# Entry
Amino acid sequence: MIYGKRIRLRAAEREDLPKFVEWMNDPEVTAGLLMRLPLSMADEQRWFDGMAQRPPAERVLVIEIREGDSWRMIGTTGFHEINNVDRESEFGISIGDKSAWNQGYGTEATRLMLQHGFETLNLNRIFLHVHADNPRAIRAYEKVGYVHEGCMRQAVYKNGKYFDVHMMSVLRSEWDQIKDK
Ligand SMILES: CC(C)(COP(=O)(O)OP(=O)(O)OC[C@H]1O[C@@H](n2cnc3c(N)ncnc32)[C@H](O)[C@@H]1OP(=O)(O)O)[C@@H](O)C(=O)NCCC(=O)NCCS
# Structure
């Protein structure tokens, strides 16, 4: 487990899949994600089987929060692919439990993944893509130190419109400056 102040990150289990499917079929959750079509359990089982073949550091982690004496899962996070030459990876996060939004959990998980990426996986650059119309995500990323790198204009077509996609990143040297703040 990877422990933060109020959250922990654990490996995903096959038993988690029905909840993932529920979250990934919620249009409010997927508004800022590249999910356009309804997702079945069979789709999700195939995704899980594929993920289990990936290197351990690239597998999805489940975000859990404390609830009484136990833990409750609220979403997922992870590094999509790790480039071992350039020491960089793309970060992703989705809190599918909407009752957990806007309470700082996404910010904490994003920061914990920076710590994990730089201090355990020895990455040098962590980057992400975020839709311009996802201000909650952009704000969470800015709060932990992600820097705007550029914008891919009209890169995503969704709900009848094109959306810009921002690129953001944190370098190891920047993390060393901000990690204790
Ligand atoms: C994006 C996401 C990870 C953020 O996590 P969260 O726990 O809800 O966010 P936090 O509470 O940590 O921080 C959100 C910040 O955005 C702010 N915010 C929320 N809605 C906002 C809006 N419409 N405009 C501007 N800021 C907004 C909050 O006030 C907070 O900032 P503050 O602490 O300065 O007040 C989460 O909402 C999520 O997973 N959403 C669905 C999937 C998704 O969009 N994933 C990201 C894909 S790139």
Remarks:
- Helices lie at 17-24, 27-30, 41-52, 105-119, 135-144, 172-178.
- The CA atoms of residues 114 and 120 lie 10 Å apart.
- DSSP finds six helices and eight strands in the chain.
